[in-house]
Design a protein that fits this description.
The protein has one domain: Alpha-Beta Plaits, CATH 3.30.70. Helices cover 35% and strands 33% of the residues. The chain contains three helices and four strands.
């Protein structure tokens, strides 16, 4: 199952340190949930347009049953606590 999250963060928030934080946190999540998270990629937008998002998280999960385990994991919750105050728009998409 594919799980995508796209976020637009307030201008200037997704700097090199934030990008590194996202990459490290999601790699740690993959290590913590190896039976659920098969792959993960953090992608930074490279084209500035008003409708574009800032960052996209792309994950391959074992299946739909993996999503709640990932969403409730403390590492996922902690990155949300750090960056949710700066999120202007967010969308998620899940598909088989």
């Amino acid at each position: 199952m594919k799980h995508y999250v796209l976020m637009r963060l307030k201008e200037g928030v997704f700097d090199e340190a934030a990008e590194r934080d996202y990459r490290e946190t999601f790699e740690k999540l993959k290590e913590a949930l190896p039976d659920d998270i098969l792959s993960v990629a953090v992608r930074k937008n490279t084209v500035e347009r008003p409708q574009n998002m800032t960052v996209m998280i792309e994950m391959t999960l074992k299946g739909p049953e993996s999503l709640p385990r990932y969403l409730s994991h403390p590492l996922h919750k902690s990155i949300g606590q750090r960056y949710n105050p700066f999120v202007e728009a967010i969308a998620s998409f899940d598909c088989e």
